[in-house]
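Lecture 7 notes: from sequence to structure.

We start with a single chain of 366 residues. Read the sequence below before looking at the structure.
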Amino acid sequence: MSTDQDRIRGGRASHEFLENLGLVDENAVVKYEPAYRFIAEHIPGFSWNIEHLPDGRNPVVHFISHPKINGEYPSLADLVRHVRGETVLHFDTLPKKVQHVFRPVLALGQFAHDFVELFVNIGVSLPVSPQFTYAIGIWLRRVIRRESSTMFFCVCPDYAHKDGKYTFDSLGDGVGLVASRAQQLIPKLHSFFAQRDISMSFVVAIADFEGRDDVTCKKVGLTEQGFYTKLRRSQQVLRDSFSSDICLSTPFATEMGPWDLFVGEGVSRIAQGDISGAFDVPSSVLEYIVNARTSLVERWYGKGVDVQKTVLDQAAQYFAVGRLTESLDNPLIVGMESPVMSLFYQIGTETLDDARPVLYLKKQHY
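Now the structure, written as C-alpha cells:
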C-alpha cells in the first residue's frame, strides 16, 4: 500500500486513472460526476454543486465540501485510491483541543467539521469542555435535517469608544462595535449555508433595555426617549447594511417577548443560587467573571460601583435574552462581546438536553 507521498497530482494522469475505472462519463453534464458519486459514498460530507452557464459554455463545478491536505485539494484520482485502500491520505484536521471540545459536534460528520472549521478560522472562543458544545451538536443536527433554524445575535447600542474600548461618553445612531462584528460575520455564515442549500435566518437583536437604565442615559447625556430615538436610527442603519438575499431582522430585544417578566424570573433564579443552570462549574467562577468585567463596568458606571451586583443584574438580562430566543426556530446564540458571560444564558436549564446552544467569538476587550 502506498502513502500520501506517492500521489497522482491531477491532470491527464488523474483522468486516465479514473477513465480506466469507468469513473468518467463523457456524456454526463459533468464528465467526472461518476467519480464524485463514488467518493461521496465513502467520504462523509464530500459534496458539490453544478453551475450551469449561459451561451453554451461548459458547466462549472463548485465543491461545497472537499477534504484538503496541507491546505490543498488532492486529485480525484487520489481520493478514489484512498477510498479503494490503494493509498493512505492524511487529511488536514482541526487542532486537538478543538477536536476535544467540539467532539459532540464533529461526530455529525464532514458538514459539522466544515462548520467548526469556519468558526475556528473566524476566531472562536473555545469552551472549557465538550459539555458546553453538546447543545450545539443538537442544534446542528436539526440544521442538517433542513429544519427551520435561526442564528441569534444580541448587540450593544452604538456607544462612544476609543481604541476599541467603550467610553460611554455618548451614543451614536450607527452600527456599534459589537454589531459591526455581526455585520462582518453574517454574510460569511449566510454563504456557508447557502452553498449547502440550507436556508438560515438571522436575528440581530439590539439591547434596547440598556436605555431604560437612568445611569446609562445620564452617562451618554440623553433622556430615555432620546436614547430610543437614536436606537431606532441604528436599527435601520444596521438592517440596511445587509444584502436583500439574507433573511435577517433587527428587533429591539424588549419587542421580542415579555422582557420584564423574564428579567424578574432571572432575578429570582439567581437569588436562589443558579448562575449556570445544567452546568457544573467551580465555586470561584463568579469571582472570575466579576474580575473579567470590572474594567468595563467601572467605565460604564464609575469607580466605586458594586461590580458583582452589576454583573448579577446583567446575568438576569442574559437569562431573559436566552428566554426570548425560545420563540425562534431552532436558535443558536452567537455571542461577540464577552465569553465569560455566556454561562448566564444557561440559567434555568436542568440537563444538557435542554441547555441553550451558545457559541462565542474570541473576546474583544471592549
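The chain has a mean pLDDT of 92. Keep this in mind for problem set 3.
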